[in-house]
Input
Amino acid sequence: VQLQASGGGLVQPGGSLRLSCTASGPIFSVDDIDWYRQAPGKQRELVASISVTGTTHYAPSIEGRFTISRDAKNTAYLQMNSLEAEDTAVYYCRAVYRPIDEYGFGGRSYVMWGRGTQVTVSS
Output
């Protein structure tokens, strides 16, 4: 089972980026999916989260600028608009999932992290 994050890059202040996070492998279900970020010299912080039912939560620093969403399968997105220099960080996705067990049903829940994707906001 893997979690792959992509979509980072260099963007000017005020610009937009869309990050994707895809879970692959023998997965029965993906429950919560979160986006975290870690800027140089700072602790990793939760940016946004979305539950399996679509309930979302956002950090106050990005609310109104970022939107988290997910598709019917195992991919979540983070649409980032009006980017600021302070948004520069490595962005990580995290997912709570249940693998397929030996009976073909969902086993116990696990947490997995994807490799980060760098977002740089600079003119």
